[in-house]
Design brief:
Helix content of chain A: 25-40%
Protein name (chain A): CRISPR-associated protein DevR
InterPro entries (chain A): Cas7/Cst2/DevR_sub_I-a/Apern, CRISPR-assoc_Cas7/Cst2/DevR, CRISPR-Cas7/Cst2/DevR
Structural class of chain B: mainly beta
Oligomer: heterodimer
Structural class of chain A: alpha+beta
Bound molecules: zinc ion
Largest sheet of chain A: 9 strands, mixed
Shape of chain A: globular
Number of helices of chain A: 9
Keywords (chain A): Antiviral defense
Radius of gyration of chain B: 19 Å
Strand content of chain A: 25-35%
Organism (chain A): Thermococcus eurythermalis
Number of strands of chain A: 13
Amino acid sequence: MFLSVGVRFEANVEALNMVETAGNYSKHRRVPYLVEEDGRLKTVYVPALSGESLAHAYQEHLVREALGLGLPVCDDCRRDEFYKSMNKVHLKKKVNPIPDDPRDIEIAIVRSCVVEDVGGFLYAEKPPVRRSSAFQVSYALPVKSVALFATSEPQLHARHAQMDSSSKKGNASEQMIYYVETGTALYGFTFNLDLDAIGVSAITSEPILDEDEIKTRREAALRALFRMLSSAQFGAKLSRFFPVGGITEVAVAVTEHPFVVTSPIYDDYIARTERRLKVLEGLGENYLFAVATGEKVPEEALKEAMDYLREQGAF
Amino acid sequence: MVPLTFFLKVMMRPTGIVALRALPQSKMRTALRYVPPTTLIGAISYPLHHLSGNRAETVYDRKTVKSTADGIRNLFEWVTIKTIGKPRLYGALLKINKTHRGELQTAVTSFPFAVMYGSGDSTITAVYLVNGEELSKGPYTMKDLERAAWGITRLGSRESVVSVENVETGKAEISEASSAETSYAFPFKGFEVQGRGTLQSVVDWRSGIGDYSSAKRIVMFYPEDTVKVRGELRTATVGGETLVLAP
Ligand SMILES: [Zn+2]
């Protein structure tokens, strides 16, 4: 089973993804956006969140949900340091001595860590062992039709320090100014989860775990997504720049094989996804499509998808 | 008699970012502007294998390690793309600070990718010409290939999510010509080209996918809009559009 979710969220005054710190100025991640003006193309830069940033947040939620269901998570991942058994030093903590056969290496990693089972890993030694992530996430970008209203503006802040009489400047209050660039936009992103990949070898296609554990891991993977969207716990600087707004729309498709909802950066994404799913039906495939706009809240659509997956025996 | 071959024409919408590493060994600093054929094969290989429950990504053949996509590349005579919208390469400089076991580590790096984001709707259309003989020898049918085409989820890295908006199937007419007009990428070899576009060196997928360190490369011309090509051409007509094939 395959799950694909399109998410739209409104974020006012957010600092969810900061890059390029220059001195006391920290810049928001931005991407170029081409617009036509008087027949000529010009570039404006709009705020964005990287897929890596969203993926990191998802995996943090996965750690908590997995532990809550009594599933194994390795020590590195428990600390939200996702090294993913990248070399001998990290792999040795899971299996020592390290086996020669790549199959045994994969088994050892998948057995001992849900995050690396679901989120993939790359053991970059000899032999290299690679497992693609079972989930995929796009960048979060401003919805196209209103992207020109998206802004990133520096906000001035000051940090104060009380100088005592022994300091050179005497008994004066000193301040240090700094700027944080805040973004404001209606964002859209896509999240996919391939439930059939969980607990199954990416080398032999054989299940590595028993069916019960695979089902519980799938449940953890779904709960983590639910939690991430419901709590709006993704991105950085949430402690002082928690975005004002929230999730405005979600569209969830559940299919037997891979299928991606049309990106919510396009205004017609729900209608298009629906039409495309009808084509799959014509090819003999069952699906569920749940949408939350207006009346329905995102949690209701996500729950519908979870219920459908449970009925289908996915977990 | 005009030779005919099945084709799949797959129209995709990017979610804004297409991250294609120029070298698979390097995660950083280089990116391709246009989607290379190897990526197109990899993109359809994943949903196709999904249909048969094949989860294998890597094949260990004694000392060589290959992608499983290599196993399906013979199913295709030719693959190419048309890109609407102009991808831009962009990579912010990133300063990474982190504490690891009490030690502060800092580094500056950049992560370039092609951005397909603008006021127009960018689309990527891939065409796969199917080798019917190879297809009949294997476990998959033309219907499986069609379903797989609908199931393409990404081009390149995991952030490059795409949605397939349309899949067209039919028979392509293969013929010879001295000139053609095309919007699809073609091998830049001994042809005269009139029009704008970008040259890009890519791995020749026909020589194998997976181990790129010694792979053969070909130079492809990625047209911006439509270009006129002259020379001793082999062409294919797919649903009213022309492709220029390898000589
Ligand atoms: Zn782990």
